Amino acid sequence: LRRCRLYIWRNYNGFGFTVTSESQLPPIITCVESNSPAAAGGLNIQDYVLAVNDTSTADVSHAELVAMVKNARDTDASVELLVLHQDFYRELKKVNRLFDPKRAKIIEAPRIMPINYQTFPKHQPRTCLLRLAKKEKSFGFSIVGSSTSTGLYIDE
Asked: Best exposed site among 56, 90, 100, 109 by fewest CB in 10 Å?
């Protein structure tokens, strides 16, 4: 469970995330743009959005959610999303366990775009060489598909 605090950056348009437009509740993050406030603030693809600035999203439409985020952006140039990854949410629901929003880990994006975000080459293919340490069982990331069929994404 995370509280992701995002800020508008002068040299970036928006917060850099997309929420499903389907009537799925709770709403789910379907895209997090690289080098965005959302990426710096800890949002991940397949996060359920449980609250926006402490207002529950349990019964809101997509249009209402978008309005909540835009209102927060226009009022404070920031927004705080209470999120939980889809897998953990489903596990908690399965065993009928509640979660306490007060115990959420706070992840705060920087208030201005970091210099390495500004200089990172945009839309450039790159190759990453990864080595798995003998004591490790995984590389520490997962690959997820997009609901829009635009490809695969590395998550976390």
From this structure: 100
